[in-house]
Design brief:
about 60 residues; mainly alpha
């Protein structure tokens, strides 16, 4: 079962900022709070961008 809960509560605000940055990069306008009016394509592109950036960050960490 999937959950939208942040595993580290102290990171919630940083994750929200990360999500907003990823949305901006793919041209999706997110607002604070509920964003149920997004299409599946828009939501997927935000999530995909977030995963892409996390993988890139991890790979950069491996280089060092």
């Amino acid at each position: 079962m999937s959950s939208n809960k942040t595993l580290v509560p102290e990171a919630k605000e940083a994750m929200n900022q990360f999500k907003m940055e990823a949305a901006s990069e793919v041209g999706v306008n997110l607002k604070q709070g509920y964003n149920g009016d997004l299409t599946s394509k828009q939501a997927g592109s935000v999530g995909g961008q977030m995963v892409k950036k996390m993988i890139q960050s991890y790979e950069n960490g491996l280089k060092q």
